[in-house]
Amino acid sequence: MPFQKIKAERISEAIVRQLESLILRGVLTAGERLPSERDLAARLDVSRPSLRDALAELEKSGLVETRQGSGAFVAEFLGSAFAPPLVRLFSTHSEAFFDYLSFRRDLEALAAERAARLASDTDLKVIARIFEDMEKAHQKRSPKEEAELDVEFHMSIVEASHNVVMLHMMRSMLELLKEGVFYNRQALFGMRTTRRDLLEQHRMIHDNLIARDPEGARQAVEAHLTFIENAMKDELRKDENEKTARLKFEHVTER
Hints:
By secondary structure, the chain is mostly helical. 73% of the residues lie in helices and 3% in strands. The chain has eleven helices and two strands, in the order αααββαααααααα. A two-stranded antiparallel sheet has the order 1-2.
């Protein structure tokens, strides 16, 4: 018979399963500091020895790292699916940027479609709150704040799609964006007409999600990322034109 005796689960195993689930679902993020041992044990209503056993197991599996004198943290490497040499390679080749945008367009369009269908009411409240903050940042003309909220807005949509593989892939991709691997987002948000266009594109994404319109949400995301692609092509073209113009100028002045 294919039956086995039921074994009682140790407290430390239950702690491990709960923390693993929080990391998997993106509730706990890479580099995040966990509460102190005393505080975390109290929140989980477990003994400190059981908690220590659980943290030791999570550290052994590479999900948590303990820093002397600082406490326990979610492992940093979980924030990126890309090795540093590959990131450096991405940053020096424009073709990688456009492939990155194309992949993001496909993945985020799917995430938006899923979010319109599967997001909870609370998910949509989070998205709406971030968009309100984007409108305020736009009024303040704060490119830095707008760029930061841009990443937060896109990430909230992926989180609302409730697919953990998509969540961790997009978190890695958006980390590349935050670090300026592909382009200077603050410069993009610093352009007056572009800023207005970007806000309206985010409004369209927001409105379709709130209306729970999967096709509308997908199309809004695709239109937004296509706009980014065309804007960056224009910037690259301007840079090349400027280089050519300088060569011509130097040649003329040397006569």
